[in-house]
Structure formats: structure tokens, C-alpha cells
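New to this. Comment on this protein:
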Amino acid sequence: MSVEIGEVSSTVHTVDSELPLSAQAMQRLVHAVSTAVRDSHAHQKRSEEERRVTGGVSAERDAESHGD
């Protein structure tokens, strides 16, 4: 079974159609991955917002310098 999460990819091999992880281990893994994905999305959103603010400030500064 291939698993791809964002930029991370891995292959999980199974034996006799059974996952090599216990149900608890799989739940911990899914929780950790979900948290990492949420954190990554939140970081991307913050970065985009910062770029918008910085871009707005730069545009304002440029407009002021051209208006002199």
C-alpha cells in the first residue's frame, strides 16, 4: 500500500493482508499526520497573509515615492 501525505510519501508493506500496526498505533499515526497537515495549512495561510500585508505596504511606499 502506498501512502502520500503532502510532500512525504512512503510504502507500507503488509503480510497476509494485515497491517503491521496495531489499531492503537494506527490511530496515533493518523492523529500525528492530521495534526501535521493542519499545522502545515495554518502555516501556509499565515505566510500568504503576511505576503499580502507586506505587498500592500510595498505598493503604498512605491506610490508615495512616485507621488513626490
User: Anything to note?
Assistant: The chain has a mean pLDDT of 76. The chain has one helix and two strands. The first strand starts at residue 2 and ends at 5.
